[in-house]
Automatic annotation (TrEMBL):
The lineage of its organism: Eukaryota, Viridiplantae, Streptophyta, Embryophyta, Tracheophyta. This is GMP synthase [glutamine-hydrolyzing]. It comes from the Eukaryota. Residues 74-275 form the GMPS ATP-PPase domain. Keywords: ATP-binding, Glutamine amidotransferase, GMP biosynthesis, Ligase, Nucleotide-binding, Purine biosynthesis. The keyword Ligase applies.
Length: 401
């Protein structure tokens, strides 16, 4: 490997000096580094930010505190106050803002923060797109209204979404259709607000997090043709280019644990903050293939509820980053009672993670899995096989799609 640092002598540290660092993946030779201590220039080629990287955090700390000399005097309270100032400087006193609440931690914390900054000039909307979990609408509306006092309009648009998704199997196409329908609904909502307040809302709040930004865009400065966008994710990839609303993304430099911390300061109920992440396209990425096939969504809701409730009953919910069920577009043979069946197969997925960028599959006890599987097959009509996903990320992703 040759490295040139113009105008000075560079020292190639190679793999020796950093022998225990590295991304921990099986590819060889991905950990390269160089340094020129005189000019304090260092280069690393691995992912120290990834939890699986041995000594990754140590490397980052060393770089920030010893090499760059910054001090760790940053508090979440300061960030909150700074963000409130930024929001107040961005949104003029007569301007209105809309926010789509998904029922997840990110959009809820983002909305609560913006509400603290501009009060009832924030108008939230919660859309039931027909792709939500069991009783989700009732559960989240209760928290928004009773605990957080957020101004929220609830719109039932299930028919609209599901008719557009009929027959669609490609996950990216599903995402785009869902994104487009959301935008149509927001436009309509904005139009109604304009009639009411005499002025169109000028901004849209999004709960975009830092991992969303990273996974949705090629790294800054890279050639788009040569780098991979992992997904046309959520918030970032899914908005139309001609959208008139300007974005407010107060969480876009934060990781999930930091958002939870901010939520705690903003008095979002702890139970709510600990909710597992749920993807924007909802059950559309958990029913593989056509979401409108048979009663797939209903079957999935019931299976998922049994799985999650069992996890809660076993006291495991907070030890897991994300758990959910997946509906597979295949049938398998079984025997129930004295009948041969040809029914649905569902998969259970539970992972631990720090930020969703890497994940390990969660190792349940045998008895837990046995109980859950029996309960699902006994109580959900049309399911005769339950499988468990035992892959980590990488090589898999968390969602199946
Ligand atoms: P993956 O499947 O990429 O997921 O390993 C990482 C985290 O992102 C969530 N996820 C999504 N969230 N829209 C979202 O809002 C999406 O299309 C989407 N796909 C994945 C996933 O649930 C996990 O927390």
């Amino acid at each position: 490997m040759e490295i040139e640092v113009k105008g000075g002598e560079s020292e190639i540290l190679g793999r020796e000096g950093w022998g225990e660092a590295g991304c921990g993946s099986e590819c060889s030779g991905c950990c390269c580094c160089f340094g020129e201590s005189g000019r304090r220039i260092y280069g690393l080629q691995y992912h120290p930010e990834v939890t699986h990287s041995p000594k990754g955090m140590e490397t980052l700390k060393h770089f920030l505190f010893d090499v760059c000399g910054v001090s760790a005097d940053w508090k979440m309270e300061d960030l909150m106050e700074e963000e409130i100032k930024v929001i107040n400087n961005t949104v003029a006193a007569d301007e209105h803002v809309i926010c789509a609440l998904s029922g997840g931690v990110d959009s809820t914390v983002a909305a609560t923060l913006v509400h603290k900054a501009i009060g009832d000039r924030l108008h939230c909307i919660f859309v039931d797109n027909g792709l939500l979990r069991y009783k989700e609408q009732e559960r989240v509306m209760d928290t928004f209204e009773r605990d957080l006092h957020l101004p929220v309009t609830c719109v039932d648009a299930s028919e609209q979404f599901l008719s557009q998704l009929k027959g669609v199997v490609d996950p990216e196409t599903k995402r785009k259709i869902i994104g487009k329908e959301f935008i149509n609904i927001f436009d309509q909502f904005a139009h109604e607000l304009e009639k009411k307040h005499g002025k169109k809302p000028a901004f849209l709040v999004q709960g975009t997090l830092y991992p969303d930004v990273i996974e949705s865009c090629p790294p800054p400065g890279t050639d788009r043709t040569h780098s991979h966008t992992i997904k046309s994710h959520h918030n970032v990839g899914g908005l139309p280019k001609d959208m008139k609303l300007k974005l407010i993304e107060p969480l876009k430099l934060l990781f999930k644990d930091e958002v939870r911390e901010l939520g705690r300061i903003l008095n979002v109920p702890v139970g709510f903050l600990k909710r597992h992440p749920f993807p924007g396209p909802g059950l559309a990425v958990r029913v593989l293939g056509d979401v409108t096939q048979g009663n797939a969504l209903e079957v999935l809701r019931q299976v998922d509820e049994i799985f999650i409730q069992s996890i809660r009953d076993a006291g495991l919910y907070d030890s897991i980053w994300q758990a959910f069920a997946v509906f597979l577009p295949v049938r398998s043979v079984g025997v129930q009672g004295d009948k041969r069946t040809h029914s649905h197969v569902v998969a259970l997925r539970a992972v631990t993670s720090q930020d969703g960028m890497t994940a390990d599959w969660f190792n349940f006890e045998h008895k837990f899995l046995d109980d859950v599987s029996r309960k699902i097959c006994n109580s959900v009509q049309g399911v005769n096989r339950v499988v468990q996903d035992i892959t980590s990320k990488p090589p898999s992703t968390i969602e199946w799609e």
